[in-house]
Every structure is written in structure tokens, then in C-alpha cells.
Design goal:
With 236 residues, the protein is mainly beta. The chain contains five helices and 18 strands. The protein binds manganese (II) ion (MN).
């Protein structure tokens, strides 16, 4: 009898610690929302008129995930490596074509995340109508804190979100400024995908994005959710 075998060890399951639990949150997909704060959309020269628009998304592979606190080399292929501080929604139940009233059922919890971006490559792709993968979906580009279970937080609708580089404030906003709220995002995204436990949704960044250099330390906080940190080392 031959036993099923793989040619080499399968890729590991990527996961995050969960506050108050010895079990980890296994990550399935990483969805990211583009332009979900008006002031950031403006700084990217792409203002959003919510009455005439829907949210848009890109994905990062689960293998891009890195736990908060890491030190990472400045990535290959860029000279304009940017931070984006974001609230991360962690999905804990299946949902397809859900209503906004089902958000509480789908949300397992929250985390503080960094959508690290090779801005030069993203903007070139945007100008040329090409996919954003080189700018967004690259190794070590999705930084995430531990998951905070939803518990009494419910569906977050407000709370400060902030980021500093070497202790200097760079981003400071409020979750109440999200163009599309968490229930609206889940209702919209689930029109296109069967949301499943383990999916993460990076909900977009406020204004104040900018570059970092080797030696910089990024810190970020979201009220009632937690903090995230990343140190940039020399390029490989
Ligand atoms: Mn982002």
C-alpha cells in the first residue's frame, strides 16, 4: 500500500495569537480595502464619492503575514517603502451575501495591522492599469498584532487609530471616519466571496502614509484593540 506523500514539506499554516486563548487564529485569506478614509483617498489623488462608488479590494497571500514586533529587511525592488496603519477584522464564521445585520455573527475579533506597501511599484501599476501585486502582495507585507476577540467590543464604529515612526506622530484618525463601515464592508465583500473563518480584512488606512528607511521603528495603536510594531533593517 502506498501512502499519500508530498514531494516536500507543505507550506506552514500561518496564524496569529489570540488574546486570552492558548489556541491560535489560523489565517485563510487576507483581503485589503483600498481608499476607505476620505483624507487618504485625497492624498492619493483618488477622492471617493460614496454615493457613486463601491469599495474595492486587493488580496495579500497568507504567506505575507508577519507577527507584530518583527524586524524585517527593507524589501527588494523599491525605493519608496510605505507604512499604512489599519484596523484588521478577523472573520470567525462563514457568510455569503450577508446583510449588514450579520456583521456581529461573522466577526471573531480585531487586530492592529500594517499594510506595508512598495508605493513606487503600486503607483506605476495604477498608472498603467496593471495589477497591484508587486506593490502590495509581497513577502512580509502584512504585519498583524494578536487577535482581540470581539467580546464586549461589538462592531467597532469609532476609536482612535494612530501610527508613529521613531516616536513621531505620522497618522492620527478615528475609526468613525471609515468611508465604508465594518457591516457595509462585510455585506459588500460577501457579494463576491464566500467569507470563511480565518479570513482577515485590512479595512484601509487613514491619511499620513509615508516612507520608512532602514533603522526606522514603526509603532501603531487602535483604541481598545491593541498595538503593532515593526522595525526596518538593512536591505538584503
Ligand atoms: Mn491599505
Amino acid at each position: 500500500m502506498s501512502k499519500q506523500a508530498y514531494l516536500w514539506a507543505p507550506a506552514p499554516v500561518h496564524s496569529l495569537p489570540v488574546q486570552g486563548s492558548e489556541s491560535r487564529f489560523p489565517v485563510r485569506r487576507i483581503f485589503c480595502v483600498g481608499r476607505n478614509y476620505h483624507a487618504h483617498a485625497l492624498e492619493m489623488n483618488s477622492p471617493v464619492d460614496k454615493a457613486n462608488a463601491r469599495p474595492f479590494y486587493f488580496l495579500k497571500d497568507a504567506s505575507t503575514l508577519v507577527e507584530s514586533g518583527a524586524t524585517l529587511p527593507y524589501p527588494a525592488g523599491t525605493t519608496n517603502y510605505h507604512y499604512e496603519m489599519e484596523l484588521v477584522v478577523a472573520i470567525g464564521a462563514s457568510g455569503f451575501r450577508v446583510g449588514e445585520d450579520e456583521a456581529q455573527r461573522l466577526v471573531y475579533g480585531y487586530a492592529a495591522g500594517l499594510d506595508m506597501t512598495r508605493r513606487d511599484l503600486q503607483l506605476t501599476a495604477r498608472e498603467q492599469g496593471r495589477p497591484w501585486d508587486l506593490g502590495k502582495n509581497f513577502e512580509n507585507s502584512a504585519i498583524c498584532s494578536e487577535i482581540i476577540p470581539q467580546g464586549e467590543l461589538g462592531i467597532l464604529a469609532s476609536g482612535s487609530i494612530a501610527l508613529q515612526v521613531n516616536g513621531t506622530a505620522k497618522q492620527s484618525a478615528d475609526l468613525g471616519q471609515l468611508i465604508w463601515t465594518i457591516p457595509e464592508l462585510l455585506a459588500d465583500l460577501s457579494q463576491f466571496y464566500h467569507l470563511e473563518p480565518g479570513d482577515l480584512i485590512y479595512t484601509g488606512t487613514p491619511e499620513g502614509v509615508g516612507p520608512v528607511q532602514p533603522g526606522d521603528r514603526i509603532t501603531g495603536q487602535i483604541h481598545k484593540v491593541g498595538s503593532v510594531a515593526l522595525t526596518i533593517a538593512a536591505a538584503e
